[in-house]
Amino acid sequence: MATEILIPHKAIRARVQELARQISSDYAGKEPVLIGILNGVVFFFADLVMAMSIPCKIDFIRAASYGSGMNSSGNIKLVKDIEIPVGGKDVLVVEDIVDTGLTLNHIVRALEARGPLSVKVCALIDKKERREKKVTIDYCGFEVEEGFLVGYGLDYDEQYRYLPDICVLK
Ligand code: PRP
């Protein structure tokens, strides 16, 4: 399948720097726990954390949705949990793309149930086309209207994650 560049790596890098600056300023004097939602988030997560100017802890979580066909059933389960206890901590959930919102909604609720001081969300891409669950994105990289996106961690059937740009699959 062909891919067409939508957001070049240079623009991603610049936006990630801005997000990191904003987050570092908002959390100044604190030590948030940044929780990345695997697997797609890995490149964004690493770039974001390294661009921040405040100390933080990092951990990862993974959810999977079980259903038939192309559409998510909404039946989401945690398949890999975090290891750092988040009770009393400031938590920042980091996601690569919010599509239906089902994954993020499930993960935020699961984390909120553990008594953190705060839970906020940073997502590189907010794609509203198929949104089913209302989710609050506190730090958003880019809003994209439609299209199947790959690259910079995003995959189609586990392919294309390695592309440095965010591309549309044609
Ligand atoms: C993708 C993406 C988000 C989720 C968004 O992950 O990374 O986590 O889907 O979709 P939603 O808003 O409709 O729930 P996926 O489960 O495909 O795993 P991956 O990160 O390993 O690609």
Provide a compact summary of the structure:
The chain has one domain: Rossmann fold, CATH 3.40.50.2020.
What does this structure look like?
By secondary structure, this protein is an alpha/beta fold. The chain has one domain (10-145): Rossmann fold (3-Layer(aba) Sandwich). The chain is built from three helices and nine strands; from the N terminus they run βαβαβββαββββ. The chain has helices spanning 9-26, 42-51, 102-112; strands spanning 3-7, 33-37, 57-66, 75-80, 90-98, 118-127, 139-144, 149-150, 166-169. It has a six-stranded mixed β-sheet, sandwiched between helices. A three-stranded antiparallel β-sheet has the order 1-9-8, with helices on one face. Helix 3 (102-112) links the parallel strand 5 and strand 6 (118-127). Helix 1 (9-26) packs across helix 2 (42-51). The mean pLDDT is 95.
